[in-house]
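Encode chain A's predicted structure.
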Amino acid sequence: MNNTPPIYCDAVIDEHVGNPLIECLPAIDRTDEEIALAMMLKPAFSATEKALPARVRFALLSRMKKLFVPFAAHHQLFTHIDLGIRNSYSWRNPLNPATQGFLHHPYAVHNAPSLRYCQRSSGSIILLSGLSGIGKSCAMDAIMRALGRPIVDHYYGESRFCERQITYLTLRIPEDRSLKTAVAELLLKIDLSNNGETNYYTQYASVSHCTLTGMLTGLVAALSAHHTACIFVDEIQRLVEGRSTGARDIIEFLFRMRDDCGLTVVLCGTYASLKLLNRQFRINRRLCEDGLVELSRPLTPGDVQWNTLVKVAFDYQWTRETAEASDALICVCHELTLGIPGVLIPLLILSQREAISDGSEILTERVIRRTFAAYFGGLAPLLAALKGGKTWAKNKWDDMFLDFRDMEDPHAVPPAPSATAVAEDGAWGKSVPKSTAVPATEGTNGADTLEALTKAGLVRSPL
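Encoded structure for chain A:
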């Protein structure tokens, strides 16, 4: 745990002034270049490593898996989450007596209507969807990096006050879709964040006589005591894999985290998770009212952000000879991967391994195509179906398609009429119907984002 005093930034919004929970966050007015630097993840690389023996270079190739290049959609998603966290903190200043009353006497909030209203209106739910391999989990990791230190021991003003802030937690929906398992995992993560100085898990979840009600009470108290503002929830498509009471309980639990704790809840899943919107209007409205964000693949090899990703990836070549990311190679990569980063990066890793093994020591179209045929043959039917968009394919691979209205959910009630007005936007940040789309942020369109990456020195190849 980092015990160095946090750096406090002067608040520029009146209701944030004097709130250490907000002032310890990175400045709200950071430039696009600063945000890009915070989200970007570049693996280590040196041209001298090209001279190393083949087996050593095989090991170095795995570094490419760490590569992350932020684009316009990632900037917009970061802005949405960052503002949600600040709004979650705006009503609970620990230096405010009303907040201390809430922390130590939770029922006091019911006797303070104004505080109760602020609590309920400060929470939000953000639903992030996209096909498998598009980089949803990597995007959440990048946003967490840009949010700064997740754990802060406060030294505000001249002295330290006894408040530990755990800005965000992560949760993966358990395979058994059990609310009890999910709550126990959160309690354990709070203990781990505190370096074992707390024992919430032992107190509420590990004893033989523990009850779900007691676990929930303990979790709410722990989240409040440590000023948690955000929970990142991954793999939410598991909630639609079966009609179990556990799945419904988890959905209600996430709504409670927003309404009763004032948290920002970020839900992340494949397109299959959008079946949740077919269940009930109440669930549909509550999931969409704070924003539905899609990370979509680039549909053409000429997409400017796809070009940037391929060119940055080609900066990491451990073959003896360095191949340029020509237009022809960019088109070949898109043809084979259909613009899915989760396929592109493994393809380039294995292609370099093939080039090193056969002695050619350079990436060529022939090597890339041969590698794809040898290692990715199992993906060919799926990618062909994704390209064709056939209805039978949508039923077979429902997590790969956005048009979930064409798929039947056996547990769903009849869906509400679909919206017809669709906001037009570029690839990698495709909008959903206008009623639920997250508004674009000024200065974060595709061209501005690429310019920011170039200025920050993250993109070496001019576009």
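The chain is about 45% helix and 10% strand.
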